[in-house]
Amino acid sequence: MDTWMRFMSNDGSVVFGRVEGGYLHEYKSLDQPVPTGAVLSTRALTPLAPCAPGKVVALWNNYHALAAKLDKPVPAHPLFLLKPAESVIGSGHAIQRPLSYAGKIVYEGELGIVIGRRCRDASAEEAADSIFGYTLVNDVTAADLLNENPHFPQWCRAKGFDTFCCIGPSIVSGFDWRAARLVTTLDDVERQNYPLADMVFSPAEQVRLISQDLTLEPGDVIACGTSVGVGSIKDGATVTITVDGIGTLSNTLAVACEVAI
């Protein structure tokens, strides 16, 4: 397995590469994984989200356990929404409550698939080959907005605010998701602990089927959906999502500031 990260250097430039023993071995980019020859100490770099997706495809109802709890049928095709690029932040960055929203904010710990090559109408083999690696995602939601308008469920608005898609800390290629579990804690109290093998659609199946609907580009992320244990985050609380072999994604919901009128 290889671990890949993305950083900002002291001069403001963004670097990407394979991390080993506290050093970044720089590569041109995720879609051009060619080494530049530069080796940088990670101690002198500021971590960013490990990729800069043009879009995040976020699945709903993709775990058998949650489908059973919600009494929902298992879908025949992935059910998904899109989160904008501006919603993405990395591990350690704060989730910001929208100034216009005082309601419940919810976490969802998820496995993320990172696309490594352009993918459209992919075969099963092409779909598997297009996966660069895996990361972690906190699919944050302004829950009270979902059904605020009884005539139109607002999935994209509720999940698309700036900072509402936490991704990181790294991308791991060659990761065996089948044997792994995802654990989510809220202020160090375990809230989710579920096997990734309970997915309805495997990662390769997700890529294949979603590529029938839209083009997946290098750096795009598919958030594989979540299982039981989703809950709300209070201002100042910290959510950590861990999968052994990938690492820990940690983000705090910033304390809301009073706005002077």
TrEMBL record:
InterPro entries: Fumarylacetoacetase-like_C (IPR011234), Fumarylacetoacetase_C_sf (IPR036663). Pfam families: FAA_hydrolase. The keyword Metal-binding applies. Residues 55-253 form the Fumarylacetoacetase-like C-terminal domain. Keywords: Metal-binding. It comes from the Bacteria. The keyword Metal-binding applies. This is Fumarylacetoacetase-like C-terminal domain-containing protein. The gene is yisK_1.
